[in-house]
Design goal:
- The protein contains 13 helices and 20 strands.
- It is α+β, with helices and mostly antiparallel strands.
- The strands form 5 sheets. The protein has an 8-stranded antiparallel sheet, sandwiched between helices.
């Protein structure tokens, strides 16, 4: 019996069988085999979800042979890739083709299937989520059928399955809308808390993409604004190799990882450490092709809870969360991350039907995360918050259904595509019901 563990080491499973399919036919064969025996199947990715959304209880499928771009349509400006391709690899292949995704999250380690299935998102833009950039997909249903979905073929499936949680089928290929490769300029600068919150709406309106990081136990905030500079690659002004190695690799990964690991044993020192780190924040501007600005390497293993609340309530929710943290005995060494997203039309997207404000809370992997997340989750829920499907939360189908107006539509498609619950696991039973 093999053992599967996710990246954060929060979830472990013991699948009864492990297979590495090389084609859609291989996937379909394994699904039919499981259905006939009353078993279950899960295609796992890189394990970057903090929840057990991908945890295999029966057959574990590995995506290692289902990678790479399979079609490029420059007239329609779409690219089709196999679902096991890592986002980082897709970005490199698109760069070589002179193409780019419109937006993406801040890491690129996930498989495409895992990223879209959990609603991975970036910030700002006209489409923040990867799923909102999908125009087609192929999946193997719970009966072993290969189903294609696009605007012309099974459009009802495409609409719902863009954020499918792995509950509707095994994704085999994904077709994204792309655009010409473009340069993104990043402006990173420190702010005071009051100054940052007062300026935030204006900054978000002026820039194409904005990230805000608040350092708990301080009044300091770092804001990263990204501005689209078009397809002229001569506008690139990337960080030097030395600066990238020092700032992003050594300081943000090696030093930060070592320091937070030590601080787990001396939590009383965390506020002083955060204040020191916040004072060292400086202004930085650089420009590069989009994916090199959107994403960064993250080697420090952590735990995370993230919620989307309505955009209009976001800053008030952030203030309320700070009041709770300040009034508690908790000592938090990781910054709180804030992003925004435009509304989309995907039933189980956290931005479905509303402009959204995302608040993400992190702890080092060895720190106690449960008290921290339990302190803040009621506030996020009270403001009509929706938890990220791939990050820690305690919600169940009973209280998630009212948060999503189209929840029943998703469940009806699940009944149609996976009537035997071949793709079920404990997490899906909790968030979708049986």
């Amino acid at each position: 019996m093999s053992t599967w563990t996710n990246w954060s080491r929060l979830e472990t499973a013991h699948p009864t069988r492990e297979v590495t399919p090389a084609s859609a036919d291989d996937v379909a064969e394994e699904v039919r085999r499981a259905a006939e025996s009353g078993g279950t199947v899960k295609m796992v990715g890189t394990g970057h979800s903090f929840t057990a959304i991908a945890a295999p209880e029966g057959t574990l499928l590995r995506p290692d042979l289902l990678t790479g771009i399979v079609a490029v349509d420059r007239e329609a400006m779409t690219v089709t890739a196999r679902a096991g391709t890592r986002l980082a690899e897709l970005n490199l292949q698109l760069e070589r083709l002179g193409l780019s995704l419109h937006n993406m999250g801040d890491i690129a380690e996930q498989t495409l299937a895992g990223a879209v299935s959990t609603g991975t998102h970036g910030t700002g833009g006209t489409a923040a989520g990867l799923s909102a950039q999908l125009v087609g997909l192929e999946l193997v249903t719970g009966t072993g059928e290969l189903l294609r979905a696009s605007a012309q073929e099974n459009p009802d499936v495409l609409e719902v399955a863009r954020v499918g949680l792995g509950a509707l089928g095994v994704l085999v290929t994904l077709t994204f809308r792309v655009e010409p490769l473009f340069v993104l300029e990043a402006v990173e600068e420190p702010f005071g808390w009051d100054e940052a919150l007062a300026a935030y709406d204006g900054l978000a309106a002026d820039a194409d993409h904005v990230d805000l990081y608040w350092f708990p136990h301080t009044d300091r905030v770092q804001i990263k604004r990204n501005f689209r500079r078009g397809p002229d690659l001569s506008q690139r002004r990337p960080l030097s190799r030395a600066q990238l190695a020092l700032d992003d690799h050594f300081l943000q990964n090696t030093v930060f990882g070592a320091a937070t690991a030590v601080l787990n044993r001396t939590p009383a020192a965390i506020p002083r450490f955060n204040r020191l780190g916040a004072r060292l924040l400086s202004h930085r501007t650089y420009a590069d092709v989009a994916h090199r600005v959107f994403t960064a390497e993250r080697h420090v293993v952590f735990r995370e809870m993230e919620y989307a609340v309505p955009r209009a309530a976001g800053l008030d929710v952030l203030r309320e969360c700070r009041r709770l943290i300040d009034a508690s005995d908790l000592r938090i060494s990781f910054p709180v991350e804030v992003r925004t997203a435009p509304a989309d039309d995907i039933p189980l997207s956290t931005a479905s039907g509303r402009d959204s404000f995302y608040l993400a809370f992190h702890t080092h992997r060895d720190a106690e995360h449960r008290d921290y997340f339990a302190l803040l989750e009621p506030v996020l829920r009270a403001h009509d918050g929706r938890p990220h499907w791939g990050k820690v939360h305690t919600r169940t189908a009973a209280d998630l259904a009212p948060a999503y107006p189209r929840f029943a539509e998703f469940c009806a498609l699940r009944d149609r595509l996976d009537p035997q619950r071949v793709f079920a696991n404990s997490y899906l039973r909790r968030v979708l019901g049986d």
